[in-house]
Amino acid sequence: MNMIDPFGRTISYLRVSVTDRCDFRCTYCMAEDMAFLPKKDLLSLEELDRLCTVFIEKGVRKLRLTGGEPLVRKNIMHLVRQLSRHLDSGALEELTLTTNGSQLSRFAAELADCGVKRINVSLDTLDADKFHKITRWGHLDKVMQGIDAAQAAGLKVKLNAVALRDFNDVELPEMMRWAHGRGMDLTVIETMPMGEIEGDRTDQYLPLSLLRASLERQFTLTDIPFKTGGPARYVHVAETGGRLGFITPMTHNFCESCNRVRLTCTGTLYMCLGQEDAADLRAPLRASEGNELVAAAIDEAIGRKPKGHDFIIDRRTSRPSVSRHMSVTGG
Ligand code: SAM
């Protein structure tokens, strides 16, 4: 039953964008006046559950809900609760989510009750004014309350920060000390050229090789084999005792170990974050009450998973490498 792609990689990790909508408008992620999908195009929560279940039957062991902002999808906890049965049965090793934290104070306890153990919270700055500027609509205090609630509920929190030149580069050492002081790992991410935004990505892009070199002037970083199933490569930071992850889609292509595929809220399966090719699973899902058609469509799609992506950010190419925004497929 396992899903193995043409390059011998076993697909065991599904990321599901449960909505393309978000209550923030991060400048590097979205345009301010984004056109979102009409609600009628979305899969119902029951259909999302059915699709996820087919993937789990086909060998997915780790499932991450993302978006858009997953916690703004109406009745999202119904889906989380439904999916948690696969944790109880042992079919699924981990159910987790990536969130901007704005709704966490409402949902943290229930997430923990559903068997969620770890979550990723995206946070690019600890400065309230800068936070409002980069998210356009967000408020730092709400996210801080969300992080507090998550930790109080016993959830392990990892922070994700997109490294942005002249925005948070100087602040990252302080963010790292703060995160490690609260027992949270911090992962930094290179900005990827996905979707049209108002700004120029060339101005924002900070290669993490440069960030690492600059951090190494202040901190002792030691590579460690720690893995969470995702693309981050981790170092141990001697001065803080914590872990720092690097996600480097631009400077170091991490595709050779890719174990992931991504499902959107309309039932489109993307076999690679950095390519346009996709497979429609909604039609085969709706065409039959049984799962044979959709299972066959998944097999066909995995057979087309590409070797990798080639994101390019430079002044000669103003168009994004991939036309869809990150909010379609989630992080
Ligand atoms: N709303 C949730 C959140 O904020 O985490 C989940 C979706 S969001 C699209 C997932 C992650 O993608 C966030 O950490 C965000 O900062 C990151 N992201 C968005 N656009 C990006 C881009 N162009 N390059 C790199 N990371 C990006």
TrEMBL record:
S-adenosyl-L-methionine binds at residues 28, 68, 122, 192. Its cofactor is [4Fe-4S] cluster. InterPro entries: Aldolase_TIM (IPR013785), Elp3/MiaA/NifB-like_rSAM (IPR006638), MoaA (IPR013483), MoaA-like (IPR040064), MoaA_NifB_PqqE_Fe-S-bd_CS (IPR000385), MoaA_twitch (IPR010505), MoCo_biosynth_MoaA/MoaC (IPR050105), rSAM (IPR007197). Residues 6-231 form the Radical SAM core domain. [4Fe-4S] cluster 2 binds at residues 255, 258, 272. Binds 2 [4Fe-4S] clusters. Binds 1 [4Fe-4S] cluster coordinated with 3 cysteines and an exchangeable S-adenosyl-L-methionine and 1 [4Fe-4S] cluster coordinated with 3 cysteines and the GTP-derived substrate. CDD domains: Radical_SAM, Twitch_MoaA. One of its GO terms (molecular function) is metal ion binding. One of its GO terms (biological process) is Mo-molybdopterin cofactor biosynthetic process. It catalyses: GTP + AH2 + S-adenosyl-L-methionine = (8S)-3',8-cyclo-7,8-dihydroguanosine 5'-triphosphate + 5'-deoxyadenosine + L-methionine + A + H(+). Its EC number is 4.1.99.22. Belongs to the radical SAM superfamily. MoaA family. Monomer and homodimer. NCBIfam families: moaA. This is GTP 3',8-cyclase.
